[in-house]
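agent> Task received from the user: take the single chain below, predict its 3D structure, and emit structure tokens. No templates, no multimer pairing.
agent> Plan: (1) validate residues, (2) run structure prediction, (3) serialize to tokens, (4) report one or two observations.
agent> Step 1 OK, no nonstandard residues flagged.
tool_call: predict_structure(input=
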Amino acid sequence: MARCVGIAVYGDRVEAAELSGSPSDFRVTKWGRAPVTGNGANGPRTEALAGLFRDMGLPRDPIIAGMPSGTAIIRSMSVPFQKPEHIRKVLKTQASEHIHGHSIDNVVLSFHKVADSKDGARIILLGVARETVASFLDVCGKAGADPQVVGLDLLALFNLGTASGAFGKGKTAVIINAEPGSCGFVISKDGELAMARPIRTALDGFSLPAAGIQAASSPAGSGSGPSPDAQGQRPDPSIIESSAAAISREIKRSMLAASLGAEGAAFHVSGFLSADRDFTDAISRGIGAPVAPLDMLEIGPGRKLSDCSPDFRPFPAVVAGLALKGLGGDLDLADFRSGEFAFHRKFDQVRFGLCVAAALAFGLFCALGFYFDMKVKAARDEHKKIAQEAVDLCTRVIPLKELPQVTRTNAVPAIKKLISTRLEELVGKGAEKDVPQINSALSWWNELSRRIESAQGVKHLSIERIMVTQNSFGISGETDSPTSIDSMINRLKTFPAFSKADTYSPPKKTEEGRYTFDIRGDVQGGQ
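)
tool_result: status=success, residues=527
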């Protein structure tokens, strides 16, 4: 089952949530918040984030992070292209007309595509100062939490609304996030992001005590600390009233600017004050429409958002929306890891050395193959018989890690050329009694590909790599949908010798509309 961690780093606190499942069927398995204490720019935040990962026992991969939207430049604009790769090429030029007070060279740009238009596309331009992004990644990196994607906290709410069904065709919906120091809202119309806006309120000066850490296996209020609402310190009523008034005014103004009316729109509030009746009533009076806590949002027949996190109050909307991006699907989240800040796995840092080593190993393999091939020709008749028996002995005689990548074109000749002379040596020494009779790498490969290709509902399938050893197997490529990936996994699980089969990393949607997959599993031995 796919898992992902979402993190948000603010000036006074850090938050994290671990989600499992898929965007349409997910569950919050862990959530925690830690205060930022001490003096210094990055040191206290780094210590708080590292401590949160340690105390919660969170995995370090994959991680999706969100910066405070209050640090960002957010503008609506049109561009003369529709494809994302073309928009990226002209984004800096187009953005220079919309960003004032900042040098365009000192801003890291990203965008959220809203919809195609007759002359190109409508997008929401997003910009964050280069030093802000560098500082944020410095905190994450030193805490050992290197994120694959860095977005904005408010756009994470759009992901949550999309996955839950609140943002869909024919609907106008608003999610308000009411947290100390990070208030804002997102508006969606017909399933598209119409607006994302941070708001300065009286809550900016209010300090929220950090909540304890909870895991889904623990009852509410248990774990290493109390539940979030147990330590929640309610602001003064005057702060609640003034903050609600400021948020209501900005929402009405924004909806008017976007030619949207409150009538028929759905309003949801998340964050620390989402369960405060006085706050939601004040927002409702200000907007002139009912406002419901996000926890009560229905996400399926007989199911509410609170069912995804039964032990957590309030629902960790921002960090959950960030983690949803890592579970796959069509969710969108602007990414500020581009250019000099582009994400690189640690493997990439040693890729050149590994490529050189692989090339040398392949050269040695070819030389050995030529040597063995010459010996085969000297005793062809005897070797034909030995090669036919090789399928039961292949894995023991020549471990698959000594072979190059097994593909449809080289599997049979590559294996048989090598094993023939090696088997002859074993037979000559009387060692055949010591070789276990298990399925060969070749027969594993045949069975693996047969089951993958016979999966129900798979319309498009491109296999890029198949790897099989005595104890494990892996297959990666592209297919037409996440459902097809699940179908392939189910087919593999019907093979008795495969004791386990699951996705190694979340599927990613390609520009052609297909989905990458990387399935890994364990084998138990011969059938």
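agent> Step 4: summary for the user.
The first strand starts at residue 3 and ends at 9.
agent> Done.
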